[in-house]
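[SOLVED] Need 3D model of a two-part complex

Original post:
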Amino acid sequence: MGRMSVNLCGIVIDNPVIPASGTYGFGYEFAELYDINMLGTFSFKGTTSQPRFGNPSPRIAETPSGMLNAVGLQNPGVEKVISEELPKLAKVFHKPVMANVSGFALDEYTEVCSKLDKEPMVGWLEVNISCPNVHGGGMSFGTSPEQAAAVTKAVKAVTAKPVIMKLSPNVTDIVSIAKACEEAGADGISLINTMLSMRIDLKSRKPLLANITGGLSGPAVFPIAVRMVYQVSKTVNIPVVGLGGVSSAQDVIEMMMAGATAVQVGAANLVNPFACKEIIENLPAVMDKYEIENLKDIIGGAH
Amino acid sequence: MKQSIFTVKENRKLTSDVMLMRLSGDTSHITAAGQFVNVKLDGFYLRRPISVCDVEEGILTVIYKNVGKGTDYMAALTPGAELDLLTGLGNGYDLSVSGNSPVVIGGGVGVPPMYNLAKRLISQGKEVTAILGFNKKDEIFFENEFKALGCKTVITTVDGSYGVKGFVTDALRDMDYSYFYTCGPEPMLKAVYRAASTSGQFSFERRMGCGFGACMGCSCKTITGNKRICKEGPVLVKEDILWEE
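Solution:
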């Protein structure tokens, strides 16, 4: 094991850097720019049972130090992900990939997870119970401990792969939801998804997003993510994947000190397509600067 | 796609709120008329997508309208300033189907991409007509530049203060042409769609996150499935377009 490698729910990854779902598609746009096998892994575009177009335009708005999105889980549906996207991905990525799953009902989560469970390329199932941009599903499962536990339990029953529950920051008590997922059998927790937000155009006097609200991401949310990763990782005994505004090797180290075993990079990929490559290349020098021999030694170091 | 640093060579006003910027840098990834660049500006999180007006031998020309804080920042840049650009984005126009006498139709800040397009068509020996639409006389730019390319150039103004009074479609209606290419505000594109007598290609504008196909922020529905304006667009063929209500 190299000095950057970590064990994420039983799978050792070369480094903790993971592009976050929804900012990396199915990898090929980035594979044209650099060898994406340098990543720890990546979390592919949130996949649902049926194809989805998502929300009307505009779906994107800018904010100070960040952005809003209300894409609304556009994806080709699990059948096409398996028959078209994964074979294409297999040509450019040779590591276990993290499959991001979303749904609108319990049986949709289990249907998609049981199909992806059969795919050898898939290392982990990251179950999104935190999308703020869809109605009647998504985040509603992630805002009560009982619902979060119910999804976790149902998904665990249909897969042998490690299940990571992706949580929403739009809650009063994130720790109780993380604990409920752990007790229901989750192998890991990832947080935070985006924060429910909105902006208004002064000229038109209307919301900038057609969906009215969207999810805030980017450096603006980084301190919130650090706080929540710290609180959750202090309480649960399963690995935590930290994300929210991570943009540099320093941010990765800070997130790991807060308690993250691995770290996802989201919005930064959209502004700088080489963000993950640069972070991974910069990590050894930043580790040296802070006298960190092995990254795994600093996990939760701030506790 | 290529990420590289460009240097501002020139940044000047064309009208009260439209600016022309010339930059030097690696333009080798710009392969078609109608492509765009995505510009990083200090202090702004998202890049700004701006269409390519012209490109030759390491010199890129863009024309932009001053519409907000980002373009205010751009307008204040002086020669020597450096900008981080993603170049070679989007599909661009397909010239192979133009026929011998295509018309290029630009409205407002939809005019700039028509310039490099007209230039490429003329270099292939096509007889190009340009219809350039503006609201009023003092908003007109690039009339002489199009004429210098050798285009038959028709200017329309909504208020009739110069050229043909009315919209671009008022000039298009009685014209003979083999094919059309257009870029401009969406109501104009819809009007061209209805008025045109041939097939053609439309360039669309959308709020974008990344500009290179990763975020799905700019997707639209078409006859042949969902397309990302930044990747499978911004140019869509007439037969593919589904107008959103």
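Edit: The helical segments of chain B are 69-75, 112-123, 143-149, 168-172, 186-195.
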